[in-house]
Amino acid sequence: MPVKLNVNGADHQVDATPDTPLLWVIRDYLEMTGTKFGCGMALCGACTVHMDGQPIRSCSTPVQLAAGKKITTIEGVSSTAASPVAKAVQQAWNDEQVVQCGYCQSGQIMSAIALLEKTPKPTDADIDSAMSGNICRCNTYQRIRGAIKDASKKLA
Ligand code: FES
Ligand code: FES
């Protein structure tokens, strides 16, 4: 049975077994490669996407759990139709020159957008809590924090 998915506003049917990780459906079946594979064990956050607005680890989410839900990937928040929060976050990421190697950054951005959609004026504790599952081997954490605060100001 094909699995029906809505990704970035578009409906898809994919011939994947129900336990296939959503990450592989996004990358291999739908050919959206902005979402990255890091640990495969829900430990690093590189694979973060939104499911009905909540950040989830797509490496450890079986595709069957995503059926009927709205999935948003980094490609979805990069479009001109992206939300004001998504645009503010991406502008702030540029302004603060957050990115080093870039590998973790789509996951970082997805977590930051989910945080600011829910909490437009986050405290340091809110940021720590929302971003603690996103690891950056290049140690860009201070710039990420600065960019989240900058995006929050842009949205005021
Ligand atoms: S690849 Fe999913 S959390 Fe690391
Ligand atoms: S920018 Fe290199 S891992 Fe985060």
Task: Explain the layout of strands and helices.
Blueprint: E1 3-7, E2 10-14, H1 22-29, E3 48-51, E4 54-57, H2 63-66, E5 70-72, H3 84-95, H4 105-118, H5 124-131, H6 141-154
Helix pairs in contact: 3-4, 3-6, 4-5
Bound molecules: FE2/S2 (inorganic) cluster (FES) (2 copies).
Report on this model:
It holds the Pfam family Fer2_2. InterPro entries: 2Fe-2S-bd, 2Fe-2S-bd_dom_sf, 2Fe-2S_ferredoxin-like_sf, 2Fe-2S_ferredoxin-type, 2Fe2S_fd_BS, Beta-grasp_dom_sf, Diverse_Oxidoreductases. The chain is α+β, with helices and mostly antiparallel strands and 156 residues long. The chain has 2 domains: 75 residues, Ubiquitin-like (UB roll), CATH 3.10.20.30; 73 residues, DNA polymerase, domain 1, CATH 1.10.150.120. The protein has 6 helices and 5 strands. Strands 2-1-5-3-4 form a 5-stranded mixed β-sheet, sandwiched between helices. A hairpin with a 2-residue loop joins strand 3 and strand 4. Helix 3 crosses helix 4 and helix 3 packs across helix 6. It is globular and about 45 Å long. It starts with a strand and ends with a helix. The model has no long low-confidence stretch (mean pLDDT 97). The site of one FE2/S2 (inorganic) cluster (FES) has 12 residues, from loops.
List keywords for this structure.
2 domains, binds FE2/S2 (inorganic) cluster, 2Fe-2S, metal-binding, 6 helices, 5-stranded mixed beta sheet, Ubiquitin-like (UB roll), 156 residues, globular
